[in-house]
Amino acid sequence: MRTLRFAAARLGGTVLVLLVVAFCTYIVFYLVPSDPALMACGKPCTPENLALAREFMGFDEPWWQQFLTFLGGIFTGRTFGTGPTAIHCTAPCFGYSFQQNADVLELIGGRLPVTVSLAVGAAVLWVVLGVAVGVYAALHKGSWFDRAAVAGSVIGVSAPVYLVGLLGILVLGFQLDVVPVGNYTELSEDPVRWAWGLVLPWFVLAFAHGAFYVKLTRTQMLETMSEDFIRTARAKGVPERTVVGKHALRNVLLPVVTLTGIELGSLLGGAVITERVFSLPGLGGLLIDAVHSRDLPTLLGCTLFAGFLVVVANAVVDLSYGLLDPRARLT
């Protein structure tokens, strides 16, 4: 029962945050000095044609009414215009790109598999490797491995992702020719070529993000291994493997889960730099193309979708916290 109350409270808070995110995102884009109706007006754009374009796109209403219409479209869908030229956007409607003549969510759906492939694969690598290296370094403090792990984590945290990516492309892609570059294949077409084409982006992201996980895990492990409950477990004769794997690691994973949820949610919203460096057709490329073409509906929909992913990821982290640490359910 307490778990259900905990989940319900987190769910209610998530819904409220999503509404605030939607409102703030819409207001920001409403204030942008660009008129999508003017972009779609055509030439010659007479005042009459501009007024008709604004009416068709729903920009002739007050800003608060536009927001309510936009919000309602997410739940019930939305129709632009009337008569035979009307365009219907089915729910959930995150907007309609009049420049690309497509539902924004359809545009997102076409790019999302690429971003998910990149983000999830890299996250698995950086969590597994980062935690494993951090734990081993903490258990062998002062060894050559510990010093190498600390030095490598400092380099990984400091080096920009685009620089590591460009070096990887130059050395591994062109000079040594051991990994393909700029050759993305759909998972449904050829799983082997799909995975092989993402090896370099995965390891570049894993190096950049995993470096911080090494530092975090090592610090948390050193602190946890000096706690009283660890000494008590050892005094009772509990095997060292159980002390580390069951008692210590469970506490170490709490901040790791939090960080993983936030970073994974952000990456799913669009790993702009990494996708651009490796020429991957993901959400990051869709965002940049929308900026260049001043496609505000697409830009608004992508930004809002990314915000939703981050908020949902945080909600999942909160629920996971309650499972890993029952004390969190009491707060």
Automatic annotation (TrEMBL):
SUPFAM superfamilies: MetI-like (SSF161098). Keywords: Cell membrane, Membrane, Transmembrane, Transmembrane helix, Transport. The chain crosses the membrane at residues 7-29, 116-139, 151-174, 194-214, 252-278, 298-324. GO terms for cellular component: plasma membrane. One of its GO terms (biological process) is transmembrane transport. Its main location: membrane. It is a multi-pass membrane protein. The keyword Transport applies. InterPro entries: BPD_transp_1_N, MetI-like, MetI-like_sf. Residues 112-321 form the ABC transmembrane type-1 domain. The keyword ATP-binding does not apply. Pfam families: BPD_transp_1, BPD_transp_1_N. It is found in: Cell membrane. Belongs to the binding-protein-dependent transport system permease family. This is Peptide ABC transporter permease. It comes from Lentzea aerocolonigenes (Lechevalieria aerocolonigenes). The lineage of its organism: Bacteria, Bacillati, Actinomycetota, Actinomycetes, Pseudonocardiales.
